[in-house]
Amino acid sequence: MIAKQASRLTLFLLLAPAILWLGLLIVLPHVEILVLSFSERVAPRVYAFGFGNYLEFFTEPLYWRTFARTAFMSILVTALTLVLAFPIALYIARVAQGRLKAMLLLLCLLPFWVSELVRTLGWMILLRETGVISYALRSMGVASQPVELLYNDGAVILGLVYGGLLFMIVPLANALESLEPAVVEAGYDLGGSRWTVLRRIVIPHAMPGIVAGCIIVFMLTVGNFATPVLLGGKNGLWFTEQIYAQFITRFNWPQGAAFGMLLLLLSSAIVWLGLRLTGQSLGTTLKQA
Amino acid sequence: MLTKRASLKLATALAALMVAGSAQAAEKLRLLTWSGYAPADIVAQFTKETGIEVEVTTSNNEEMISKLRATQGAGFDLAQPSQDRIAGPQTEFGIYKPLDMSKIKSDQFIGSMLEATKKNTSVDSKVYGVPHIWGTDGLVVNTKAAPKVADYNDLCDPALAGKTSFRAKRPALIAFAFANGMDPFAAYGDAKAYAALMDKVGAKLAECKKNVKFFWEGNDQLLNAVRSGEIVAAMAWDTGGWKLNADNPDMKFIAPKSGALGWVDTFAIPAKGRNDDAAYKWINFNMRPEIAAKVAAAAGNFTASNGADKLMEGKLKDQFAESFPKAAIDNIRWYPAVPAGLEEIEGKVLDRLKAGS
Q1: Residues of the signal sequence (chain B) (predicted)?
Q2: In chain B, where the domains are located
Q3: What ipTM was assigned to the predicted interfaces of this complex?
């Protein structure tokens, strides 16, 4: 009896840091944001309860269009990242051995030792009108005028894919590693072409890894701030910029809080939909990640 | 894993660090200001004279208000918002405390500027701000590449497509309103008329947007782009223009035909500031002509200190004289205090401008 109680206490004590961390730093602030999002300004220093901030999102095309654009571009970025990361992960997991494998993973990791801001500024130096690429193109005679490659959606997608690559490669490589070579061989023995083996054996086996990677990259992308701000053009407003604007330049915290909640809810809904469409459950995916 | 002894050592070290930290924080002034307003040598001189250490945080108008609002006016002992951005946020959020004018040496200020600022920053007949640094918003132009630019509307000239810039903030709205024959300041009192006027300005800017390379955010970003020739004309601060002018005489700051926009940055004390004495000391120290002249030279702007102009360096004076003939000075539009609520109208116009294509 006493031993049981003691072990329960131990369990509780061991869990306490995690619970405190989650409760104080994640749940509590979100509750506060939620409460804040339901208050409307009536007069200076007077606020009342209401749904106006949420209505504003759905009635003002400006805001939901920005969100739709952000979501669409994030999905595109996730898809591109997947396509780029898959062969790399396959090579790391199946072909590379020993030292080479460790080195390849390290190479993927290396850019992340530098802060996101610096990496983005690096892209700016490459892409700007007076930048490295523009200069190279001119000196090779491909272009006669300076070429502006910055401040457009392409630059934003490039920066985001670059930033998401690692988070796709690691879960993918993890998932592919556990694939038995014998299974692949059996596929060939039974007369399967390379494409058939990839489609019917490798991809289904890697599915939990693919889904895990996609969720991480999508969530990171949709909530990114620095990359779209720095690389994006005058038309490329990201939804996070709307939230920043409401909080910082508009002093309208309730509206910003409502946008924050909407970003959380809508992007979670998109992930849920993605899981549904691919027939994956969150449980198996989490095990993989 | 940490051994017991190692963790004990670590804990002791941490405790020692905390004690040392709090002992050092005996007297400190936490200053929330603009970059360039508290040069290191001035701070050092102040610490030497008074024994008070100054902790400088650089920011801009919106972030200052947001920071103070988040803490209801705590975390800083002195802030430097622009004079037009005090009354509104004060009414809305109560983030400042009234100034005790008896503690400020008012004879150190240019009289007319002090009175105007006091009037603009008053709420319920209590004064919340005194002037420190002033300057204008106008046009920074590469006169060789864009010789014809003389007013804000010229930034929308198709001949300069992809080579102009302005900030997607309220000064752009005000400037383009004036340039297109509207008077936004006259509409300040009537929110409905103001919204209608801003919609018109928004439409004008949306049309101009295809001409703009980017909406600039930081001063350095803009100056870099002008230096490299990527931008040939922009709406920007006078100080930036003069900085460029010092390196290249073709780059000029031009007071636009429809009027440069005059701003005044102030001293204001946050509602929960902990060291008002130090704040007043810093204000009086900074307004001494010889100190004010140094700060103004470092910031590249002008000061509200009486007599500092005689101590200013010749270069800035010459540049000012070239950019501002007598008529242009009279034509400067000084921002009146922004009534609470108007910024929301402007915000939406700016959101649309940034999001639309």
Answers
A1: 1-25
A2: 4-134+263-330, 137-260+336-355
A3: 0.78
